[in-house]
Amino acid sequence: MTQNDISIRKKELRKQIKEKKKNFSPEDAAVHSEKIFSQLESLTQFQRAEVVLAYWSLPDEVSTHNFIQKWASKKRIVLPIVIGDTLELRAFNGLKNLVTSNSFGIQEPKTEELINPHVVDFAIIPGVAFDKKGNRLGRGKGFYDRFLKQTTAYKVAVGFDFQIIDNVPVSSFDVPMDIVLSTKK
Ligand code: ADP
Ligand code: MG
Is the whole model's pTM more than 0.70, yes or no? Predict the structure, then answer.
């Protein structure tokens, strides 16, 4: 496949997954999210981690809100903020300090201090589709591909079962995950 074919295939897949999402209720999402995070908490890499990169979930993503609030007092939780084409990191410092200042509707911590990506030892990453080999398809802007080049963190993708497919098309700049967690059997 040429680079152009791969990019067309990625676009088709994003559309297909968006359709499948419509059959998945907020109740399904809550149940699956809880199970996924309980698997995540049992990983030794998580148990040993001191600085954990999470994301503050949008309604169509594996929900992180309970997880983040549960762990915020025990580990250092950091969240991405969107600056132009890049992701930068800030410490999660409570619900009341989350603000939406980007065009994607994502809530971000409103502190001055940036966290160096090198200090993250465990990264939780959302996406549109994943395969068992760890390949990841995002929303199409390559944010995590650019960001993850800067860190050696253990990379854990989280996705609903309909987001796990046989083969995600990959480009040279796509950064693979170390493990993909879902409730797919
Ligand atoms: P996503 O990972 O969100 O699914 P893609 O993998 O399709 O998105 O990447 C989107 C665009 O981001 C690509 O066309 C590419 O130009 C750009 N991109 C991805 N990774 C890098 C990188 N490491 N350096 C520069 N540009 C990148
Ligand atoms: Mg990519």
Answer: yes
Q: How far is the CA of 140 from the centre of ligand 2 (A)?
A: 7
In 3D space, the residue among 170, 158, 172 whose CA is nearest the CA of residue 41 turns out to be: 158
Domain limits of the chain?
A: 3-181
Q: Output the six-digit token pair for 8.
A: 């067309």
Residue 61: phi, psi to the nearest 5?
A: -110, 165
Q: CATH second-level architecture of 3-181?
A: 3-Layer(aba) Sandwich (3.40)
Q: What is the pLDDT of residues 38-85, one digit of tens each?
A: 999 999 999 999 999 999 999 999 999 999 999 999 999 999 999 999
What lines the ligand 1 site, CB under 6 Å?
Answer: 10, 137-142, 145-146, 149, 171, 173-174
Residue of minimum CA distance from atom 23 in ligand 1: 146
